[in-house]
Specification:
Elements lengths: L2 H15 L10 H9 L10 H10 L3 H8 L6 E4 L6 E4 L2 H16 L4 H5 L6 E5 L5 H7 L6 E5 L3 H13 L6 E4 L2 E2 L3 E5 L17 E6 L1 H6 L6 E5 L5 H4 L9 E9 L7 H9 L3 E7 L9 E7 L2
Parallel strand pairs: 3-4, 3-9, 4-5, 6-8, 9-10
Antiparallel strand pairs: 1-2, 7-8, 10-12, 11-12
Helix pairs in contact: 3-4
């Protein structure tokens, strides 16, 4: 964001929430006043998000300062567990803060950690910026997290965040896709949590490995599986594959065809899992045919 645009945005924000021009938005007392006001309408509605993020991040002023264009980058630190995320620009902020909220605020993968008794290894497929892998790594008894992220941009962010938290030895990160064995060229530009695995004319050549081969390479026989691959889950979990090493799983499904998730439910039940399904609705798009599948062996 240019300094002129940032200055204009800050002046507009002050006017909208009733602050005087003399107030310095870099001061914590001013930010507290800003975040205490009612959510203004229109293009500066991001104040609403800051009021929420204040409860999520220990260093919440840095979130606001990056969003306002006053700071170019920041390291965000969650109140829950003190995990750090690097944000290199205002454009990165909403995506990073939003995914951190899902994992550390809403505790989206609580089911896996609540039922982890006797299990110490996590396989995280669709690691994105490393948020879920980092969350798993904070729990006692979890000795290793194997994390796979296909998209080069997200992989780079995950690598940075894992190094930032000093858990390189606990989290083993791979820039690989999971599916049918082969190679795929992926755009190495900015990616989002909802990006599907789609070949690109240019970018980085990424290896595709099968879930079978990954499981075969892990010595544990009681693996926790987290899978969030924006539609690739149907290719990854093939009918008849050997899931005997997996004892607990949480999978996000995205139905291109209504009810298609029943294929995965059937495959898990045939492998000896007790399965529950939770349907969700996207509050922004209204999309309804997605949700979570929870699977556990007794």
């Amino acid at each position: 964001m240019s300094s002129v645009r940032a200055g204009a945005l800050q002046a507009q924000l002050k006017t909208a929430v009733g602050l005087e021009p003399k107030h310095d938005l870099r001061e914590k007392s001013t930010l507290k006043k800003l975040l205490g006001r009612q959510n203004p309408a229109g293009e500066i509605g991001f104040v609403y998000h800051y009021k929420h993020w204040k409860s999520l991040f220990r260093n919440w002023p840095d979130v606001a300062l990056v969003g306002l264009g006053i700071k170019g980058s920041a390291v965000l630190e969650t109140r829950d567990k003190g995990v750090k995320f690097f944000v290199g620009s205002r454009d990165q902020l909403s995506g990073t803060a939003g995914i951190a909220d899902e994992t550390f605020g809403q505790k989206q993968y609580r089911y896996l950690m609540d039922n982890r008794k006797g299990m110490s290894v996590v396989l995280d497929i669709g690691a994105y910026i490393g948020d879920s892998a980092l969350w798993f790594a904070t729990f006692s008894g979890i000795r290793k997290v194997y994390a796979y992220e296909a998209h080069p941009y997200a992989y780079g962010m995950a690598k940075t965040n894992i190094e930032l938290n000093g858990v390189n030895g606990k989290i083993e990160l791979h820039n690989m896709a999971v599916g049918n064995e082969g190679l795929i060229r992926l755009n190495d530009g900015k990616s989002s949590p909802s990006d599907r695995l789609q070949a690109s004319a240019d970018g980085k050549l990424v290896r595709i490995v099968t879930l079978d081969s990954i499981l075969a390479g892990i010595s544990s026989n009681r693996i926790i599986l987290k899978l969030d691959c924006e539609g690739s889950e149907f290719e990854i979990l093939r009918k008849g594959m050997d899931l005997s090493k997996v004892y607990l799983a949480q999978l996000e499904f995205h139905n291109a065809v209504p009810g298609k998730h029943a294929e995965i439910v059937g495959a898990l039940e045939n492998s000896g899992f007790n399965v529950d399904v939770e349907h969700r609705t996207d509050t922004v798009t209204g999309y309804r045919d997605f949700g979570f599948i929870y699977a556990k062996r007794e």
